[in-house]
């Protein structure tokens, strides 16, 4: 620790990669209790690192830190941070895009195959010692005759689509703006795409704009052969509507990496045989998580040197440090 580096407030765990990268910065971990006294003593802090979405970061906190200039946040999604409120105060929010695209796209394909071909169920069958009594039943579904609709075609959506091309399935997508450089058919209306496909992969940001966009109407339109894969945020799917659709076999199956109230997964989903559940592991390899943590560090280091942020979110474009 050297005295000439600015102090940094840390919200979330101090992982070894962060500890190493920020070793020169006096770090102050947000306490669970006695916050008022802690924040009053730290009112001059100018930098914050958020290493996990453990709590909302919004005006209530910004009020306590009037000198704050940068929030360097872990993950590409930042729906736990009020970036619009930060922008109004001239605070730059940075995130960790791109370094996780390929990992999350790999996870998505794994989840899709597991859901369609029932691999986790088949693995449980072997472990339960049931194979000697007979073969695992043929999977009712296959990827072979499916059409995949991507809800979101950004950095990760495009990486998923590239992989799907290798599987020979037709690919279409829904976003607010068409990407003319892509050859896939664009649907301006999600409901129209849901009607035309039997497989939806959701990879949009969370937050108010996308809350419950996969609702009962969309699930009805997807239909009884429908497979829903959610690798985005739990908030994007109306969870009670999904549970009802799965129970009533209005859709065929779902593969979920994310949930409305993580780490709590609805008990009803736990007991269903037509769902595959993952504990938000889209980017969760040592390889990729190190790169994400390094980007948190690199944004803080750039700020401390008076350089532009490396990866600011669109709501907080950099116009010089205030
Ligand atoms: P991105 O590059 O910003 O792409 C977002 C895509 O969503 C764009 O195609 C965007 O297109 C579309 N979109 C945004 N709002 C929309 C709306 N209201 N309606 C329809 N489409 C909308 O983001 P990314 O890097 O691909 O990451 C996407 C999200 O994945 C993250 O924000 C995060 O929540 C999630 N994620 C999850 C994991 C995991 O571990 N499960 C890991 C990484 C990321 P338009 O702007 O044209 O609409
Ligand atoms: C992280 C993610 O696992 O980048 C994101 O948006 O969802 C994941 O890569 C998550 O931020 C960890 O809390």
Write the layout of secondary structure elements.
Blueprint: E1 8-11, H1 16-21, E2 27-29, H2 35-41, E3 47-50, H3 59-62, E4 70-73, H4 83-88, E5 92-94, H5 101-117, H6 119-127, E6 148-151, H7 155-167, E7 171-174, E8 185-187, H8 190-196, E9 199-202, H9 216-222, E10 227-230, H10 239-247, E11 253-256, H11 267-271, E12 275-277, H12 286-304
Parallel strand pairs: 1-2, 1-3, 3-4, 4-5, 6-7, 6-9, 7-8, 9-10, 10-11, 11-12
Helix pairs in contact: 5-7, 8-9
CATH class identity of the largest domain: Alpha Beta
Q: What coarse outline follows from CA principal-axis ratios?
A: elongated
Overall number of strands: 12
What would the average pLDDT be, to the nearest integer?
97
Cross-sheet strand order for the largest sheet? 8-7-6-9-10-11-12
Describe the structure.
This protein has 2 domains: 8-97 and 286-304, NAD(P)-binding Rossmann-like Domain (Rossmann fold, 3-Layer(aba) Sandwich), CATH 3.40.50; 101-277, Rossmann fold (3-Layer(aba) Sandwich). It is built from 12 helices and 12 strands. A 7-stranded parallel sheet has the order 8-7-6-9-10-11-12. The protein has 322 residues and is α/β, with parallel strands linked by helices. Strand 10 (227-230), helix 10 (239-247) and strand 11 (253-256) form a beta-alpha-beta unit. Bound molecules: NADP nicotinamide-adenine-dinucleotide phosphate and 2-keto-D-gluconic acid. 2-keto-D-gluconic acid binds next to loops. Residues 52-53, 74-77, 100, 280, 282-283 line the site of 2-keto-D-gluconic acid.
